[in-house]
């Protein structure tokens, strides 16, 4: 391709003298030591190769895993010392290559070796063909793989240790030991160990379940993190364009770079056109750096291409890159980088937005989501309430002990237990109440739900990069979507063309009429402009069919040029590219300056039709001539453009101009812009990009769900409106505006104009990335939850500003992906709708679990508190029983309810608000209704159970049976209520019950373990075996929970729960809407600014405001 200046392959060269690297003197001084060490080195190398053989094979076959990283000594150095042939024929060593790219880089150091092409020659690489596939393994063995070892991960035992750090569990451990000692002392070995061992076993079970869950979640997040880091690269191998994973890159590879790419390894520029790189991640300097093969060819791993395009030669991979050394050599490197980042922020070298984003990229910020923070806060408050209850229970129990045993002289108090046993038992109950009351399951449910949903979303083509995006997506009120590739297929075809003042239609299959009617010169000039002013590369697939690489619009134009009979290689060989100004979304056009073989210079421009047309002074006309482009003629051409746009076609204007030699003498390639005035309009191409199947229906679903979908595009407003109507985005009363109109307004003017009719603003055409950012910012200030899509480097700001930034996995640049929260792997709008459903599902699952857990909390705390304080009664639940209930409630409940799949009915509701209470009025109804029913049943059993079941409370065994019935009924109430909790409003809770195998499994396991505990644990769990009649009664009464749930759901509920009413009561009587308040604030701020401005101008002697 002409745009890439590829040096001719010099062919293989023999051994040659080469400059010694800066570190080479060490080997010279230690030749004797090398003789002793070489055998050890060779043995170590063979050992490493044997260990890494399997993973090396995986890389060769395209597996994501990479081999163990090896950095062998230079074979050349070994040959110099001992004349040992290691089988490598590269004439430059890894150490020398590392030395070349070591910061600070030095062009003089490179000149000692020659140019980038000379380095390629030493690496045995033909820069036109790239690395041969058969050479890849050899290069992996010698130069290492492009993988930086991850820091060691926590082992399972570390999670066990973390689980043991829970304060309440530590207290319970001491209680278990004390109970064991007191029991053995009072009752002997045969019966005295039950309570202590029972509590210990329950504690171990809680610890192990917690550790297993945390460990599994860590594995899941690690797996997803690995997927986010897997970047696909465009390289040249075996003489053709190829796509490989970043982990498969080897030294010598030729990588094609374009705007938005992350540089995957250290290397040197081979060719470039307006190539600019952001090196702030490595150097700390915020200024963009221009790169070319002569003055500054050094490219560092991890930096980002912000403009232009080019190709690079890879010279260092993995641990042999500057970034790799930083990560591997110094364990405190990340801390130093953070210190440097803090320093930059303190010195105002970077903005607060950049500071937060970079800290998040470096893993220095907590990954807690807003929902987790809210639930942690709620858990703390509930925990404090539980602690209060526990203290009261302990104080009452101690008071009862003193009054009944010593005040009344009742020696039988405590059923024969010693004073120490009673005290330990009471402390255990109090501590266990705290364990049950503190809802650790709330944050756990969020984590489980997020981990489960992230995996499911990945299978639905959504790669989640930041956890907060999962839950935020459920509350999205606005989706600001790109058009190309998201709403449309991105399979563009030229279907209409205006050439030589003639309009040709139906060009997608046959363009013979164009060949017949258009003069040869105009046709030839148009073909040259399309072929030269393009980044498209054409190679061949394995089946021999052409493979096009580049932007979809350019590919459509190049394909059309080939239909017209163009020979791409011949055209590009006839011209030499002098300079390129790549397309960007701000100027919406691309220009190329070329020199023909006869010495003449030409500029070629293409881009948005009305923009390029304004630069044209002439029109290519039949008769091998060009006509002055008058205003009247220009209006005629604009009419052609308008007609194409009304047919949903994207229009591209192709133009050119011959540049005079005098101009070229003064032209500075480095600093001067390519001239764009006085152009000749050659043609207007109408390109069809069909609407994606399923998009119109998906947009309707969003609108039904209370989400406003807006299309933001660079197309002209006519095309944008036509496509928006096709996609069901633009309604009859909808508003379509141009970016320049939006841009011209102040923030206050935008709020005033668009605020009251926010839902009607549905299309923004001819928009820039800045317009997209400003729109997102405006929507957020109006308290909207905004999701935005973007694929370009310039979209990064808008992606970061949005509540949910969605980048495109296929067409998106690496910069856009790293700035986003979610990567849409198939670039499809319907995937965004699926994400909304999953986001709502997460929030809904958390609410279901919250309602379930609060019901358990209220009932468990109430029954134990009443049993503790009421004279003549005892708490019915022992510590072991409460720990078992805690496991059902926290771990199993979170797993069962946190992993429910989304249903279509979720899209029937409006989005939840940013500040909506977690516990809704419907949830309050269900919680209080179920708690009331369960407490009535359990209180009847507690106070009248001895009569109902014909039991004597004064007999220890029969009291244990009664408490076991109460415990059994309580546990099965929770199991049945878990089924109720599957849906907070639907009456049929068994819908899709048997399709959720995990939920079914947890219900079955809970029932089985409950039977085992009751029938086999005996004194260890303070239970007694029940008769079949007692089982039938306890489970039968508990099963009434389900019909009671139906009755409760039939009760009417207001829109406002207790918490909402309290907030309104304390709102100082303000009843205006948020928008009205915001408008009033803006007007107030404006008036204050005007006053300040007037004061400043009056001081300067001016009366004008």
Automatic annotation (TrEMBL):
It comes from Chloropicon primus. CDD domains: P-type_ATPase_Ca_PMCA-like. The keyword Transport applies. It is a multi-pass membrane protein. GO terms for cellular component: endomembrane system; plasma membrane. Residues 111-184 form the Cation-transporting P-type ATPase N-terminal domain. GO terms for molecular function: ATP binding; ATP hydrolysis activity; calmodulin binding; metal ion binding; P-type calcium transporter activity. Residues 1-36, 49-74 are annotated as: Disordered. Residues 334-368, 1072-1099 form a coiled coil. Keywords: ATP-binding, Calcium, Calcium transport, Calmodulin-binding, Coiled coil, Ion transport, Magnesium, Membrane, Metal-binding, Nucleotide-binding, Translocase, Transmembrane, Transmembrane helix, Transport. This is Calcium-transporting ATPase. It is an enzyme of class 7 (translocase). The chain crosses the membrane at residues 167-186, 192-212, 387-407, 427-452, 849-870, 922-943, 998-1018, 1030-1051. The lineage of its organism: Eukaryota, Viridiplantae, Chlorophyta, Chloropicophyceae, Chloropicales. Residues 49-63 have a biased composition (Basic and acidic residues). Gene3D superfamilies: Calcium-transporting ATPase, cytoplasmic domain N (3.40.1110.10), Calcium-transporting ATPase, cytoplasmic transduction domain A (2.70.150.10), Calcium-transporting ATPase, transmembrane domain (1.20.1110.10), HAD superfamily/HAD-like (3.40.50.1000). Catalyzes the hydrolysis of ATP coupled with the transport of calcium. It comes from the Eukaryota. Belongs to the cation transport ATPase (P-type) (TC 3.A.3) family. Type IIB subfamily. Its EC number is 7.2.2.10. It catalyses: Ca(2+)(in) + ATP + H2O = Ca(2+)(out) + ADP + phosphate + H(+). It is found in: Endomembrane system; Membrane.
